[in-house]
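Subject: for your reference before the review

Hello V.,

The reviewers asked for a structural picture of the protein, and I figured it would be easier to keep everything in one thread rather than splitting it across files. Below is the amino acid sequence we used in the manuscript, unchanged from the supplementary table.
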Amino acid sequence: MDNGLQETLSAVDLIWKIKLITIAGIKLSLGNVVVALILLLFATRLSRLMVKLINKKLILRFVEDKASQTTYQTFAFYGCLALFVTLSLTIAGIPLTVFTVVGGALAIGVGFGSQNIVNNFISGVIMLVEQPIKVGDVVEVDGLTGTVLSIGTRSTKIRNADNKVFIVPNSFFLEKGVLNWNFETTTIRATLDFGVAYGSDVKQVENICMDIMLNNEHIEQSPLPYVFFTDFADSNLNFQLIFYCDTEKVASLNHVKSEVRFKIDEKFRHHKIEMAFPQRDFRLKMDRSLDVKVIS
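And here is what came back from the structure prediction:
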């Protein structure tokens, strides 16, 4: 029994010491690789646990801004992951000098086919540090408008008005023009255009519209909303309403605009103010009279 067990252990030891690969004169055995893989599997989980602890004990206590909290949490995760990976390789007996050669090979691979991944990763780091956009901001990029749900190191998640979530590569935010509706302030301006028929009392139109905006709970009273008489058009008198909304208090600007339009239609009907529609007056000029025949 003892001899059988000894032979088994000897066989396992031989398998464990099988040389798989030699890099820069360093021979990596099967045992080294297996131990490294097992430790690396736990590295990610341990990193997440460490981030939760760091977040609870340090970040939430000393950092009030939510966007900055997300930034510190991300960097804490990758810092812990790098630490645990280094420890895993050290315990497995794999020297870090191996990565001198492996890093060169990876650099060549990046040069040929991984530019986008590296570009998005670097863009994500820049966004987390500079914070041109934050979680909760309403942004418009490459024809997409929505609320930022999360900012990762590779991509950013945005939810649009249809409750659809889009995953946008981070490089888009640095390479394309981005409109951040919440940059430095959550109060944004909205405009609404309409026209009334010629002959309407323009002062009454102004008073009605001001009353509607001043009594709408979703419209900010500072700055005050106001009414512009913008133009004498072909078929109507043009007006523009300008008001301000806090994006943290309203579902969307379209909802507020819809409320204002409903009220305008209601009030104008009550005061018999006619909404304009395209019309043309034709005059027929003739050198002689026109004969008209009525056929019964």
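For the response letter, the relevant points are probably these. The radius of gyration is 34 Å. The mean pLDDT is 78.

Happy to draft the paragraph if you're swamped.

O.
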